[in-house]
């Protein structure tokens, strides 16, 4: 009897255990599955090596070439200076280089030597009308060789050529006269300037 009772008790216990296990399985299937978290991915960043810096050497521009300087104009001596020209038919001025009296010529030989002579301008009205004439003037030369005290003595026609003749004479330059090693003033000199229109051809 004892063995039978023990067998029954063991069978009942096994049966209960089987039922309990089946109930556990059924209840586990009905429960929602646990939320699966995505795996965390760790990326290890490596420092990139610095890119090589390339330097370019720019060639220097060539130095600027010096500009060629224009040739300097040659200086002209008083004898080479061209006189003024009038563009209304091209009248040209002729000078009477011979003094009107022997006194002027004698003083010129003793030291009153002109080194600069300025040509007078031909008056426009006279050139247009074809008029010619002359102007006689007296003047003095100071110690520096400048013309002073210039004035008209006589002229033909009167007053037509006076202004241009005086203006030209005052611009003349003389070599001073030397006496006893010193420059002296010369006075009483005279000159005649003739105004003539030279015909072409």
Notable characteristics:
201 residues; alpha+beta; Fusion Protein Consisting Of Minor Coat Protein, Glycine Rich Linker, Tola, And A His Tag, Chain: A, Domain 2; two-stranded antiparallel sheet; 4 helices; 7 strands; rod-shaped; TonB_C; cell membrane
Description of the structure:
By secondary structure, the protein is of the alpha+beta class. It has a domain at 124-195: Fusion Protein Consisting Of Minor Coat Protein, Glycine Rich Linker, Tola, And A His Tag, Chain: A, Domain 2 (2-Layer Sandwich), CATH 3.30.1150.10. Helices cover 26% and strands 21% of the residues. The chain is built from 4 helices and 7 strands. The protein has helices at 2-30, 102-109, 124-129, 162-170; strands at 113-116, 133-141, 147-156, 173-175, 177-179, 182-184, 186-195. The strands form 3 sheets. The chain has a 3-stranded antiparallel beta sheet. Strands 1-4 form a two-stranded antiparallel ribbon. The model is unreliable at 72-111 (pLDDT under 50).
The computed structural class is alpha+beta
Strand neighbour order, sheet with most strands:
3-2-7
Question: What coarse outline follows from CA principal-axis ratios?
Answer: rod-shaped
What name does the CATH topology of the domain at 124-195 carry? Fusion Protein Consisting Of Minor Coat Protein, Glycine Rich Linker, Tola, And A His Tag, Chain: A, Domain 2
What's the helix-strand series? HHEHEEHEEEE
Helix content: 25-40%
Uncertain stretches: 72-111
CATH architecture of the domain at 124-195: 2-Layer Sandwich
Can you identify the CATH class of the domain at 124-195? Alpha Beta
Strand content: 15-25%
Quaternary assembly: single chain
Number of helices: 4
Tally the beta strands: 7
Give average pLDDT, whole number: 71
Give the radius of gyration. 64 Å
How many angstroms separate the termini?
183 Å
Subcellular location: Cell inner membrane
Organism: Pseudoalteromonas phenolica
Biased composition (Pro residues): 59-73
Family: Belongs to the TonB family.
């Amino acid at each position: 009897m004892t063995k039978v009772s023990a067998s029954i008790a063991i069978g009942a216990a096994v049966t209960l255990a089987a039922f309990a296990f089946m109930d556990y399985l059924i209840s586990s299937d009905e429960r929602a599955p646990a939320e699966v978290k995505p795996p965390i991915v760790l990326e290890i960043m490596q420092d990139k090596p610095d890119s090589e810096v390339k330097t370019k050497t720019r060639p220097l521009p060539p130095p600027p070439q010096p500009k060629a300087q224009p040739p300097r104009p040659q200086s002209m001596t008083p004898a080479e200076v061209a006189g003024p020209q009038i563009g209304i038919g091209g009248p040209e001025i002729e000078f009477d280089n011979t003094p009107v009296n022997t006194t002027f010529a004698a003083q010129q030989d003793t030291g009153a030597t002109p080194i600069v002579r300025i040509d007078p301008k031909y008056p426009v009205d006279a050139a247009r009308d074809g008029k010619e004439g002359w102007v006689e003037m007296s003047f003095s030369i100071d110690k520096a060789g400048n013309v002073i005290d210039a004035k008209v003595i006589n002229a033909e026609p009167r007053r037509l050529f006076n202004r241009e003749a005086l203006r030209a004479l005052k611009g003349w330059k003389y070599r001073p006269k030397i006496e006893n090693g010193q420059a002296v003033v010369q006075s009483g000199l005279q000159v005649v300037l003739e105004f003539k229109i030279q015909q072409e051809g």
